[in-house]
Amino acid sequence: MSAYQTIVVGTDGSKSSLLAVERAAAIAAAFDATLVIGCAYYENQDAASSTLRQDSVQVLGDDPAQQNLDTAKAAAEAAGATKVETEIKAGSPVEALMALVNDRKADLLVVGNRGINSLTGRLLGSVPADVARQSDCDVMIVHTVA
């Protein structure tokens, strides 16, 4: 197995997502990989409402998304990652993560487990389950919530 070169992780500003960022940062540090932290945002309330999911925080606007990224980048650097990049993407969390994985040719996608075991997640899907099905790279689902 070759070492991971590019690792993507998403944040929505929640405690759960920051735990996933910290785990991804530790892996990036171990492999001397580039860590790309992404944050999806909706441009307006109508767009957010049309894709409302129980397992994701709805980030409205690019200013809050950038604040989430700044916080996540600081957490990643504190966890040992030295090559950290950030990017905001308009759209749903799944769309944004898949775009980042594909655009950056990521070797690993790290997501938290929030929503994966909920009834809604089982019936309608969850961000971790959906990206695991769609991703062409390795996916690590980090235990971030009980």
UniProtKB/TrEMBL annotation:
Q: Which InterPro entries match?
A: Rossmann-like_a/b/a_fold, Universal_stress_UspA, UspA
List residues of the UspA domain: 4-143
Q: Name one Pfam family in it.
A: Usp
| Family listed | Belongs to the universal stress protein A family.
Q: What is this protein's name?
A: Universal stress protein
